[in-house]
Write a structure and sequence with these properties.
This protein has 126 residues and is mostly helical. The protein has 2 domains: 56 residues; 67 residues, Photosystem II 12 kDa extrinsic protein (DNA polymerase, domain 1, Orthogonal Bundle), CATH 1.10.150. The protein is built from 4 helices and 2 strands. A two-stranded parallel ribbon has the order 1-2. The longest helix is centred in the N-terminal third of the chain and has 54 residues. It is elongated, with a radius of gyration of 25 Å.
Length: 126
């Protein structure tokens, strides 16, 4: 009977060890993803600053009511999905009235908006 108990005890210890290892691995994955998001935010700030410096005094704000997807993709922090979302939302609301409406577009978070507010403008077409 003691032999059976020891085997069960070993099995239980192995299971506990396995659970601990899985927990540690999952924790590391979560930490890695959070640090990757933080690095992405720093990269966006750097890309935005670089874009502004490169344009210098020639920086012309893009009218988001006339911008094409290609125009938008050229901006820092804007990929194809976000550009499409900006254009689709523009069509849905029949043109942006205020720059702040960009915040309502999926893919335009606070950091992207903070970068874009100095690069785009809303020209009322009415």
């Amino acid at each position: 009977m003691k032999v059976i108990f020891k085997r069960e005890e070993r099995s239980l210890r192995s299971e506990i060890l396995f659970i601990k290892i899985i927990f540690i691995l999952l924790s590391l994955i979560v930490i890695w993803q959070q640090s990757a998001n933080w690095v992405g935010a720093v990269d966006l700030e750097t890309a935005c600053q670089h874009y502004k410096e490169k344009a210098g005094s020639n920086l012309k704000k893009i009218d988001i009511n006339k911008a094409t997807e290609e125009d938008l993709i050229a901006l820092p922090g804007i990929g194809i999905k976000t550009a499409r979302a900006i254009v689709a939302y523009r069509e849905t609301i029949r043109g942006y009235k205020r720059l702040e409406q960009l915040r309502l577009v999926r893919g335009v978070g606070d950091k992207v908006y903070d970068c874009l507010k100095d690069l785009v403008t809303v020209v009322d077409s009415h």
